[in-house]
Design goal:
The longest helix is centred in the last third of the chain and has 22 residues, at about 260-285. The protein starts with a strand and ends with a strand. It has 2 domains: about 5-130, no CATH class; about 140-350, Rossmann fold (3-Layer(aba) Sandwich). Helices cover about 25% and strands about 25% of the residues. It is built from 7 helices and 16 strands. Helix 4 crosses helix 5 (about 185-190) and helix 5 (about 185-190) packs parallel to helix 6 (about 205-220).
């Protein structure tokens, strides 16, 4: 058997503790433990720290079990103990730790709270990394539930998805536009990321809700974004410059608790396609070339898990936009939905041509 060695170096008071963790090579290279070049090793330095190390291990892409991942951690714990280093190992209920587990154990937030992430790579290689933190689900929930104005009828955009959408229309600084601002969830996340925010909505009540929620955010989170809000139809409105990026959840149509009939789906799909097409046609001449957009549009899931998409998804080029392609994710994978949802959100990543 060939072996793969991962050496963890922990330094404390000018002492160096070395641990060698052996990974075995199997016939099938997608099994755990991960394999690599003969005598290969990855070295991670844990900086000076005091007290016990808290460690979690997450595996991605391997055919393995939580028990086997846990056994790897137990070996690691034993080797560290031989060198006088105390380690608390987080139990694996799955092969990868959940975001909640990582967050509540503060993994990645200090030198002695560590999550090792092992990802199966190409050609039998393994990538070993150390996390630098997990999403703060406590803060996300507080922003979602603590804001003063909510409206389930117009939809409840999750703050986590809103932040992802802001990040998928990347600019270094400037003003983010949401032409369908609703209750302002996306603009809240943009403000927390340091952007000025610009929101419009067809319904005056929604603009009032956005203002109230942004006032609450500014008061509770001590941010100072520039804020511009107005009532307007996204299909005809003329926005004020500058607009450095656009990120929005467009009109998603009628909600469904079960897949609609073919006739009903055709009706709703046509209505949504018209509104979103006219919005893109309206905003295109108002944007500078190179302006990024992330637009969430509806896609409908049937009982077999198949999706029906908007026609505009395949024809944005005719409106003056290019699709932005991600390196590791296909366009048709940019779908956000719960298992019981019929109407999914499909993310269109665009650049003004």
């Amino acid at each position: 058997m060939n072996t793969r060695v991962m050496m963890l170096i922990h330094e404390r008071n000018d002492r160096r503790f070395m641990l060698f963790l052996v990974y075995y090579t199997y016939a099938h290279r997608n099994t755990w433990p991960p394999t690599g070049p003969r005598h290969g090793r990855t070295r991670t330095t844990w900086a000076d720290h005091e007290g016990k190390i808290t460690l979690g291990i997450s595996a991605y892409g391997f055919k393995t079990t939580p028990r086997d991942v846990q056994k790897t951690g137990i070996i690691l714990k034993g080797k560290l103990k031989e060198r006088g280093v105390s380690l608390r190992l987080i139990p694996n209920t799955d092969i990868a730790l959940s975001s909640a587990t990582s967050h509540h154990n503060k993994l990645g937030l200090s030198d002695n709270h560590v999550e090792l992430i092992v990802v199966r790579g190409a050609n039998g290689t393994a990538i070993i990394a150390e996390s630098v933190g997990a999403q703060n689900i406590t803060a996300l929930a507080a922003r979602d539930q603590g804001r003063p104005k909510r409206d389930a009828f117009v939809g409840m955009l999750p703050p986590k998805l809103a932040r992802m959408m802001v990040n998928l229309a990347p600019v270094e600084a400037g003003r983010i536009l949401d032409p369908f601002c609703g209750t302002g969830v996306l603009l809240q996340e943009a403000a927390l990321l340091g952007y000025d925010v610009y929101g419009t909505d067809l319904v005056p009540k929604m603009v009032q809700f956005t203002q109230a929620n942004l006032d609450w955010l500014i008061d509770t989170h001590h941010v100072t974004p520039g804020v511009t809000l107005d009532t307007g139809d996204a299909m005809t409105y003329q926005w004020q410059a500058p607009v450095d990026a656009v990120s929005c959840e467009a009109y998603l149509g009628q909600p469904f608790s079960a897949p609609p009939s073919p006739g009903k789906l055709t009706e709703v799909r046509g209505n949504c396609n018209h509104i979103i097409s006219e919005f893109l046609r309206n905003i295109a001449p108002q944007l500078a070339p190179g302006t990024p957009l992330c637009v969430a549009v509806p896609a409908w899931r049937d009982s077999a898990g198949r999706f029906t998409h908007l026609p505009i998804v395949d024809s944005v080029g005719s409106l003056g936009f290019n699709r932005t392609t991600l390196r590791h994710v296909r366009d048709d994978q940019l779908l956000y939905y719960r298992e019981d949802q019929v109407v999914a959100r499909e993310l269109l990543l665009l650049t003004k041509r």
